[in-house]
């Protein structure tokens, strides 16, 4: 590496140094769950290959190779599909979190909580909450959030 300082060479070597892989128990659980979901398709493919070997004569190594490629494909797809097997970290509903009304809630409308858009309704029947108001999520019915105007903000605007 002509022309590079010793410091730059050391930093590059440190950045690309291989570190030992330590499995994360949470990721291992997700991977195990993913493999269990793939198991029925592997068994089905094996049964089809066994049936085909009786109908069409071919070497056994071909069936093993096809099944192996199928399993390898599923293992390689885990990083892309693994998110479907993760549990939400905060639970499904943002109870107790602050949100901002995207449109007037009269009686229902939409609020934005942590960047997500949710259908919401005022906790007190007949209450009107204007757009742009900060609200607090108090409860949920299915995917409908029940919100009320944030008391701290309301007290500051009087």
Give me the Rg, rounded. 28 Å
- Give the CA-CA distance, first to last residue: 68 Å
Number of helices: 4
Average pLDDT reading: 82
Order of strands in the sheet with the most strands?
Answer: 1-2-3-5-4
Shape: flat
**Count of the separate structural domains:** 2
Largest sheet: 5 strands, mixed, barrel
Task: Tell me the helix content.
Answer: 40-55%
Summarize the structure.
The radius of gyration is 28 Å and the shape is flat. Helix content is 44%, strand content 20%. The chain is built from four helices and five strands, in the order αααβββββα.
Tell me about this structure.
The structure is a single chain. This protein has two domains: 21-85, no CATH class; 98-156, Nucleic acid-binding proteins (OB fold (Dihydrolipoamide Acetyltransferase, E2P)), CATH 2.40.50.140. Strands 1-2-3-5-4 form a five-stranded mixed β-barrel. The protein is 44% helix and 20% strand. The termini are far apart. A hairpin with a 2-residue loop joins strand 2 (108-113) and strand 3. The chain is flat, with a radius of gyration of 28 Å. It contains four helices and five strands, in the order αααβββββα. The longest helix is centred in the N-terminal third of the chain and has 31 residues, at 25-55. Helix 2 packs antiparallel against helix 3 (60-81). Residues 153-158 have low confidence and may be disordered. It is of the alpha+beta class and 158 residues long.
